[in-house]
């Protein structure tokens, strides 16, 4: 039975790559569905990690992404006292860099673009919405992002050990791919 269900579910996921994993999330896609889509239709999809590259160095990376194009970047000269961290600013070239990545792959702005951040909320969803507002109608994002949600109570409170790419048994490693990571030296 499981052997029959898996191809049926995969077919449904591929037929509707923008299918929401949650009823109130029309542009989200689960990590598992993202992986399946990328495996089956790699030439038709642009999968980008939108985290700051320094964050990737410390949290991990999946080589399944095509590129790292940061949506929000860390401004190490400005401290955000309310959030107790450095200020984040929007990459002013984000849409142009995504479009260039599509062109390099022989795709246009109508292709499926999947964004992934750490948790899906601060950069994943906003980056997909931003792309849609800027002429990329099929932009979506990975629900719960790369690292997933943090546990709210118990011995593991505060640890990001539930859901997300990293906790779903999908391929990832501790080091970024130097050919895919966002770099200003090339």
Automatic annotation (TrEMBL):
Secretion signal, residue range per the UniProt entry: 1-23
InterPro entries (UniProt xref): Rhodanese-like_dom, Rhodanese-like_dom_sf
Transmembrane segments: none
Protein name: Rhodanese-like domain-containing protein
Classification via Pfam families: Rhodanese
Rhodanese domain ranges (all copies): 41-158
Organism: Marinobacterium iners DSM 11526
Keywords: Signal
